[in-house]
Design a protein that fits this description.
The complex is a heterodimer of chains A (830) and B (305).
Chain A (H helix, E strand, L loop, with lengths): L8 H15 L21 H12 L3 E3 L1 H13 L5 H15 L20 E3 L9 H9 L9 H15 L4 H7 L3 H9 L19 H5 L2 H13 L9 H35 L3 H19 L5 H18 L11 H14 L5 H16 L8 H6 L8 E5 L11 H13 L5 E6 L5 H12 L6 E4 H10 L4 H6 L1 E3 L3 E3 L4 E2 L2 E6 H9 L3 E2 L4 E2 L13 H33 L3 H6 L3 H4 L10 E9 L1 H17 L5 H9 L8 H9 L9 H18 L9 E5 L5 H7 L28 H10 L12 E4 L6 H17 L4 E6 L2 H9 L8 E3 L4 E3 L5 H9 L2 E2 L2
Chain B lengths: L4 E9 L7 E6 L20 E4 L9 H5 L5 E3 L5 E3 L9 H5 L5 E4 L2 E2 L2 H9 L2 H7 L2 E6 L7 H13 L3 E6 L5 H7 L5 E5 L5 H8 L4 H12 L4 E7 L7 H14 L5 E5 L5 H7 L13 H13 L5 E3 L2
Parallel strand pairs in B: 2-8, 8-9, 9-10, 10-11, 11-12, 12-13
Antiparallel strand pairs in B: 1-2, 1-7, 3-6, 4-5
The chains are: A alpha/beta (830), B alpha/beta (305).
Amino acid sequence: MENVKELEMAELAAIEEALKAVSSHTAPTRETSHATWQEDRGMNDRVKMLRHQSETTQPYIDMERALIETETYKRYEGSLSIPELRGQVLHDYFERKTIRIEPGELIVGEKGRGPQAAPTFPELCCHTLEDMHNMNDREQVNFKVTEDDLRVQEQIIIPYWKNRAFREKIMAAQTEQWHLAFEAGIFTEFYEQRAGGHTCLGSERGVTHGFAEIKQEIQNALDAIDYLNDNQALEKRDELRGMLIAVDATTVLANRYADLAAKMAEEESDSKRAEELRQISENCRVVANERPKTYWQWIQRYWFIHLAVTSETNPWDAYTPGRLDQHLNPYYQADVAAGRLDREHALELLECLWVKFNSQPAPPKVGVTLKESGTYSDFANINTGGVTPDGKNGVNDVSYIILDCMGEMMFIQPNSNVQISRKTPRKFLKRACEVARAGWGQPAFYNTEEIIDEQLNAGKSLTDARHGGSSGCVETGCWGYEAYPLTGYFNLPKILEVTLNNGVDPRSGKMIGIETGDPRDFETFEELFDAYKKQVKYFEDVKVNGSNINTQLTAKYNPVPYMSLLTEDCIARGEDYNAGGARYNTTYLQGVGIGSITDALSSLKYNVYDKKRFTMDELLEAIDHNFEGEKYQLIRNLVSRKTPKFGNDDDYADDIMRAVFQYFHDTITGRPNMRRGEWRIDMLPTTCHIYFGEVTGASPSGRLSGEPVSDGISPERSADVNGPTAVIKSCAKMDHAATGGTLLNQKFTPSSIAGDKGIENLADLVRSYFDMDGHHIQFNIIDKETLLDAQKHPENYKDLIVRVAGFSEKWCNLGTELQNEIINRTEQSF
Amino acid sequence: MKLPAVINVQKFSVHDGHGIRTSIFFKGCLLSCWWCHNPESQSFDRELMFDPGKCTGCGLCVKACPHDAVTVGEDGHAHTSKGTCVTCGACLDWCPNECREIVGTQRYTVDELVQKALEDQQFYERSGGGVTLSGGECMVQDSDFMEELCRKLHFEGIDIAIDTCGYAPLGTYRRLLPYVDTWLYDIKMIDEEKHIKYIGRSNDVILRNLEFLAHNGASLNIRIPTIGTVNDDDESMLAVIEYLKSHVGMPPVNLLPYHTTGSSKYTRLGRPYLARDLQVPSEERMEHLKDLFLQHGFDNVQIGG
């Protein structure tokens, strides 16, 4: 590389010394409910040992990446274009990072220097020392931080990155209106903590091509740039050069592992293990440049890609393998036919991959989000089943192996789901129901036809639509062909509170919205609803304005050449994934609390305008008093128990849901998103319904101040009293095909789905919802008593996993409020 | 046509018949089985149910009652005078603890019930389910009403199961027979003396109706509530087996083990629970009885609904 800045000897020495110091610490440990590895889960001793190591290692901060990146920036910033610099960071990190092969491993490679190591990304958000203490001290998932880490952060990382971090840029770019709404909890901002991401492996290049081949393809595009006529020629050149540097990173890393495995094989006394190490070495050597030739090599190659995408930046939603079963099946069939592989070994390799996922905690967040976040799951979400790109049934032998694997491993990562299409065999659906009946929320169930419809509705070709699926929580996208970042959650119930206070947030007393009139003066429900719609539109404008700025800042400062080379048509266009290089470019806004806003509006319409049980003034007074006291008991009972609510297949409430949904949809969908694509909506909450509830006062529906708002498209808790079929009917009245994903949670008692009949009924329930075009449904199957006991005696439930939103999480990692919310979800017992 | 009182229209009902069903529970039954787990379904009248365990004695119900029927006693709980209470429900609107409930307030027309049943039609079609008419006892409700209901459900293509204790006019069975897909028919015991003791009525009407159905091509599913100390002995079951074989045939049989989950309802109704000392049959006992049926040639015998 030319024009490299010569660093001062002292500066270099400091970084070298720091690298040595931070890497010298051994990984900290933690307790799990499996005291010894023999008691741990897994098909054999190897998997049990690996799983146990992954589970008993305490997540910890790994400063290697931050230090190496800082050195790369100091050397090249200013002399390399930004895409090249980003490629160089990945390349240098993979060339210099600590690598290890754990005893018994068959798939190798970690994002950090070992299992559960969490590298930091100071170029995105630079942790303060207080953040570092918080991540070490927080009660839920915490990250061990050593004295050396703190010293390095203070002396090297913070001085360099404090004013350069991307977070500072986007916060400084926002308007006063944006900050007012953001602080009030009207919406959240995804780009504030992590980089945009949201796609999966899917293009032919990404799934099968060798890295040397890809490098040549990039070089060809570079050679084809038309400097005579193309006014974007230089930008394209820089981007493609960035890709060239980036693609070498995986080749370098794979070769390092090939060398290490070969060396370890020589030193290994156990001949069986030595043979395994030789095979690992060969696998790594092959995939360093060539196409994978076996099932095992495919998994190893994918894992290097996963590490590259999640080390390049920290994109929301770890890069998942997309249709893992369909990608692997040709290799599986060929290996089995050639006698190289049997079903048992195929399962073992998958279980080893599952351990790898589990060993990668999501990067620690910053500020309040760091302190309060209920999950550090990295949202890798594996789809199994569905259809093939040419429309055939996609369930194959590997699909069943994956179900066995997820059922045996019971990990929160990777998050596993099944896609159920009209062509899916009932046997597969029933087997998935059986795994789900173990009660931990996986697999979740997705409707293949609906996912295809959603994508056709978004203007994609039929073949591309069939390439798609759901990633992250429930977000629909066309894997390998689309960039579909989420931008933030949108608090629909809070906006009614602001409407009822004529634009003021009663929590702060600040004017955060617009003046739409005193609700006491509204003579009809329509006047009230119009005022609500005006406030919604206002806040949407503020949010979209902010996100469009962030999109442009991301394209400029945070290109991702590695993810781009995996995504069509970035190479052909010479354009970055974050700048509109993908074939399809969607931006999602996630509506939260549709159940709560429906019940609140239904209560106002029914009680104040239709039945005239009490006046607006009386209701607002009760709300101001949080319904506390004898005086408000009658109003509280009437609004809580004797008012139509969403989730009961009652058109009175459900029509209101449709009206709110339609308005939200119509005013977001189709807006330009600054990447030559459009805005669309999702209806999912992750854990945000807890935060949005905390900032929202009592609701006209009887929901008390600070209580969570409804999650996903699920009814407000305890509002649904007519069982799961009524919930499903209500939810199906939403036009799912107009969204990019919806999330429905259902909780069952174990006894209600006992026996083969229980499995049949669960399967039919899923099928019926999908007949009605539902997008997604998932189940928690657990007794309330068990959860209450787990809250009291967490020490006995270290292994308990529950479904939160589009992901599962360990019970003990959840905050009390989120635990309460899950306990209080309506339990369907029948 | 008299509109019967309905306690509940339960959707996603999966224990009374095949597939995903909607069960309609009618209020009123002429039997009074000791172990009845839905005692609120016995009387044809509206009833107040009150859960003293949830009551905090706050007295809002006293203030709310327009008939001065409620007082708070020295035990710290509300007490409602049955003679004075007209079950108007005013107290329910004020009670902060949801300890009061009035059962039997809902009365639907035939068309309203058909409409409700149609709401879940997609689930029935997917799962092979349908509607189960139950109770209380659906066969002692207004027979014009019941016939029209079954006719209209049948016309809509909805599978109909009737869950009956058998103690009802033969004419009603005759009228409904053409429309009903499955009869879930309860038999408790053959011994007449015991029958009168535990169930309050003679067995003859029940057996005669069953024979009528059997001889007229009805699809039957025999359900036997199995109660420890009452009918879980071999002798009682053998009598049932013998009777079925000689008079009915060998239809599918469900052995329903007695459970005590209904006992709290007696407290809420302010009634004594006669079955307090009856035993819950053990799992081994249930398996043994199932084997007894199998040994005698029945090929479809299940424990539970």
